[in-house]
Amino acid sequence: MSGRIEARFAALRAAKRGGFVTFVTAGDPDHETSKRLILGLPAAGADLIELGMPFSDPMADGPAIQASSQRALRAGASLRRTLDLVRDFRAGDNETPIILMGYYNPIYIYGSGAFLRDAAAAGVDGLIIVDLPPEEDSELCRPALDSGLRWIRLATPTTDDKRLPAVLSNTGGFIYYVSIMGITGTKSVPAAEVKKAVARL
């Protein structure tokens, strides 16, 4: 386990500042441009990088991310090439955490065991898989933890006190709080509401 996520949050706490977490879709608009973008993120201020795994049916995402996935796929993006981007990034940066974010289908097609092995070897630090609930932890979550990858769980405004223990189980790295109902990028929530929700989590 590299501990890059924990080390970065410890550094942010010591500096008394919040972290800047960026999201980009791997392979958008094409592989080489995507590579340049990802390599440039730390110098642009990114503390953690969420790298979207292109998927043909990103049902939880808004129009902007849906379009980015479609552009990437048209340009030849794949899960294997996404891991190549991580590998290229790690050649020059062994400190900035990279979290792969997306859906289970491409991982299932790749082969879960092979994916976890290759992701860990490439230098991935954690996974956010939006369509695998805690009830399916045996499918990918527990094997990911065994591979040294952090499993980053989603919590939402509808995650009540009864559901919260399941959401917090087997979670590592950080909790991803989805502050709005519906697809991403469609509206914003007052900071006071988010602060209250984070305090409860």
Structural features:
globular, alpha/beta, 42% helix, TIM Barrel, 9 helices
What would you say this structure looks like, in words?
By secondary structure, the protein is α/β, with parallel strands linked by helices. The protein has a single domain, classed as TIM Barrel (Alpha-Beta Barrel), CATH 3.20.20.70. 42% of the residues lie in helices and 12% in strands. Helix 2 packs parallel to helix 4. The chain starts with a helix and ends with a helix.
CATH domain class name: Alpha Beta
CATH homology superfamily name: Aldolase class I
Distance between the termini: 25 Å
Radius of gyration from the alpha-carbon trace, in angstroms:
16 Å
Strand order of the largest sheet: 1-2-3-4-5
Please, what is the average pLDDT? Answer: 93
Output the number of helix runs: 9
According to CATH, what is the topology?
A: TIM Barrel
- Please tell me the CATH architecture by its name: Alpha-Beta Barrel
Strand content: 5-15%
* Contiguous uncertain segments of 5+ residues: none
In total, how many domains does the architecture comprise? Answer: 1
| Helical proportion, percent range | 40-55%
The topology string of helices and strands comes to HEHEHHEHHEHEEHEH
Broad structural category: alpha/beta
Give the biggest sheet: 5 strands, parallel
Find the count of extended strands (DSSP E, 2+ residues).
7
